[in-house]
Known about the structure:
Layout: E1 9-10, E2 20-24, E3 27-32, E4 35-38, H1 40-46, H2 57-77, H3 88-103, E5 110-120, E6 124-134, E7 137-146, H4 152-173, E8 179-186, E9 192-197, H5 199-220
Parallel strand pairs: 1-5, 7-8
Antiparallel strand pairs: 2-3, 3-4, 5-6, 6-7, 8-9
Helix pairs in contact: 2-3, 4-5
Amino acid sequence: MFLINNDITYSPLFNYREYEVIKRNNFRYYKIEDNLVPSVTSILRLSRHNQKDTYSAQQADSFEIGNLMHSYLDRYIRKDEIQIKDTNNSKIAFQLCKSIIDNIFPNIDKFFASEATIHEDYNYAGRLDLLAEIDGKLTVIDYKSSFRKKSSHQIDEHFQQLAAYASAHDKMFNTKIEKAMIFIAYKDTFEHEVVEAGLSSLQNYKDMWIDKLQYYSDVSQ
């Protein structure tokens, strides 16, 4: 059990509701007012034409490590104790968590939302990792953990995910998210990579996301 020192203010801007998540035919939905609203990540995955989903032992570990890392970071932001299980995946997740705390959080002025579910009407929904203020700009941040370096195509898709979240949040709460940031923590070396998109790039990714959303609408009819 650990409680890492955290001097950054956590000041939620809004009340974020929790919704039931339902999985059908390997597709994730959020149940919002009796509507099954597709998740952003499922829509993006659907757009990867002719790509089959595979589930190796390494991928199973990767999912567990990523989920644990997100849980630890959420508890850190909320100033809760972090409980580390005596398993290899838990220890790796904690090291990745520390990498993010040490290398990105010192640049953050305020935490505004952590693991918050947002949606754009009934078109799509998702859970953003972090909304924060950096250099006076409202910034949506996504944590990624990986065994190997991300391709440019993967980075573009991750930014489309953040663009979807930014659009939904701005519409729900009349905010103006100006920046997106992806923090990639590598599981084997514990090295990290930070990729950012400013306002103009974020708009381009919003346009790409609209195309993916239209593709989902076309194939789901």
